[in-house]
Amino acid sequence: MFYHQANIAKVIGGKPPVGQSIEMNVDAQLVPEPDNPHGTHAISVRVNGRIIAYISKDDDASYWNDIGRIAASGHTAVTTARIWASTQRPWDGRGANKFESRVTLVLREPNLLTPINNAPTGTYSVLPWGGGLQVIKEENHFDVLFNYVPPSGVGMLLLTMHRGINRLKNGTEKQFIEVRLEGERVGELSGATSGHYLPVVEHMETMNVLPVAWATIKGSALAAQLTLQAAKSTEIPDEWIIGPATTVPKFVPHSDSYTIPPTYQGELPTPAAAGRPPTATISTPSSFRAAPQASAPAAGQPKVKRGTVPTDEHRKSSPTMHRLAGVSMIILGVLLGGILALIPGIGPLLCIGVIWLGIYGNIVRRRIAKTLEAEASSGQGTQPSSR
Predict the structure, then answer these.
(1) Pairing mode, if any, of strands 98-106 and 279-283?
(2) What are the backbone dihedrals phi and psi of residue 353, each rounded to the nearest 5 degrees, phi first?
(3) Which residues touch 227 (CB under 8 Å, ≥6 apart)?
(4) What pLDDT digit, counting tens, does each position of 213-264 carry?
(5) What are the Cα distances from residue 312, in Å, to 317, 318, 372?
(6) Which of 214, 276, 342, 367 could form a disulfide with 229 if both were Cys (CB 3.0 to 4.6 A apart)?
(7) Tens digits of per-residue pLDDT, 128-182?
(8) Is the dihedral of CA 121, 126, 131, 136 positive or negative?
(9) Which residues lie closer than 8 Å to 117 by C-beta, 6 or more apart?
């Protein structure tokens, strides 16, 4: 049906010139359609309310349960959609020009989109996604983990991280990281691995914020393994440290089926054409996003944290200039701080304050630069690049 092609053309800002192609990334909402008469597991891919494709019939049944759970919980699944489009003349030079498009979604494997458990109550923040690190001694807590092994044998969990102390035979005390699942201890990290996370856990404890990490559980009726998927202290970006807490929406409990509201839009008033509608293929991501419906991001809109929305004045300078300005702020802060430190009594405090202002100014400038680069790559404020 050609109306999908028309919607894709609107999303990318119009069909590319003849002989050229366009490729761009946009934020897309995945909407399950339980009332779709053409498929029992139809999942539409929408940008700003426009349907640009459907997850292919080879994949939709596999993703139906997780995406349905998100919808039943009152949220919308949001992911990155990579759109490729091209306009070409017919090979024989006869007839109308041909507009072609392709949509590729960035999604994890089925059963890994939503956590089996809900996030803890109280103030918490989820560490950025990172490479997998094995949790040890989980075999001692299989009585707890057994209840969380999904029928598929693999799933996602949200674990909390806590500092513990091991007392060695010689009386030496050594800190380590203990991981808990809904308050129950389910394992710990080795001494070497704990060292990668102690700084961030200690920092969050001083802020009265509970550290939470993604983890993969893999198991059966006999055993289970946990793999922590959290960025190390040295890998965590400044934006996460000084920005608002990263939270996960609350989901309804896991089930074989969910109550999902009707969302099918029906046929648009354009003539149907032979052939299948555009379908979206799947690629593997590095992170997960699920956004509340009330604040679903606009397509192509870069994610920015409070205080980093660039103004027209910011856009007059390139991202490189903003980064250089940030470095200059640190240098000026150090130089001015050194002078102020000579003042008797209050000098050291003024020195620390000025240096901190320089560091903070550098962070803000880096965040503005990153946002401007995101705008440029998504086509925000400029025409999409063509090849």
Answers:
(1) parallel
(2) -65, -45
(3) 132, 133, 134, 135, 215, 216, 218
(4) 999 999 998 999 999 999 999 999 988 988 899 999 999 988 888 999 999 9
(5) 10, 12, 11
(6) 214
(7) 999 899 999 999 999 999 999 998 899 999 999 999 998 877 778 899 999 999 9
(8) negative
(9) 148, 157, 158, 181, 182
